[in-house]
Amino acid sequence: LAIVEIRLPDEGATLDFGAKLARALTGSEPEQVLLFSGDLGAGKTTLVRGLVSALPGGDEARVSSPSFNIMNMYPTDPETAHFDLYRLEGFPADDSLLEHMQDDRSLVLVEWAQFLQKEDWPEEYLLLEWQPAESGRTILLTAKGKKAKQTLLALA
Ligand code: ADP
Ligand code: MG
């Protein structure tokens, strides 16, 4: 397990950090799972927007919160699968959702990861947790597994 704290003073910093994360991912193995844990208005979708737009092919992607359809796909290289588990609150995810989240040929981004039941968490992931902050945003990054640790190293 490796942990890093990031300060994001404003929305621009969140978008820039998303782009930095995209470069860190494409520099190693982008087919991994990123779990976003933060409340409504934390900036999860903003970060996804900054990230996806900086991926190969991502400048054309229209990123929005997939709250109603649960998953959006973006035509990046590799493909990005964007989940929003808000509607899961308190309920277990069904098997087809979990199967989609384990797609190892895609970059998988999961908003509201805190609503995943413990036993449904992937083996390896990069977790981004929004912390309470007086101003702007603070996120804590936790890497579990080799790929996620590489990504975290590339960010430092
Ligand atoms: P979520 O997907 O977590 O519900 P959104 O990304 O949709 O959040 O919206 C977050 C709101 O917070 C937006 O209005 C955005 O401009 C703002 N925001 C994003 N990052 C920051 C930041 N680092 N500091 C202050 N405001 C931010
Ligand atoms: Mg959102």
Give structural notes.
- The protein has one domain: 3-Layer(aba) Sandwich (Rossmann fold), CATH 3.40.50.300.
- β3 and β4 form a beta hairpin.
- It has 156 residues and is α/β, with parallel strands linked by helices.
- The protein is built from four helices and seven strands, in the order βαβαββαβββα.
- It is 28% helix and 26% strand.
- α1 crosses α4 (146-155).
- The longest helix is centred in the first third of the chain and has 16 residues, at 11-26.
- A seven-stranded mixed beta sheet has the order 1-7-6-2-5-4-3, with helices on one face.
- It binds adenosine-5'-diphosphate and magnesium ion (MG).
- Magnesium ion binds at residues 44-45, 65, 84, 111.
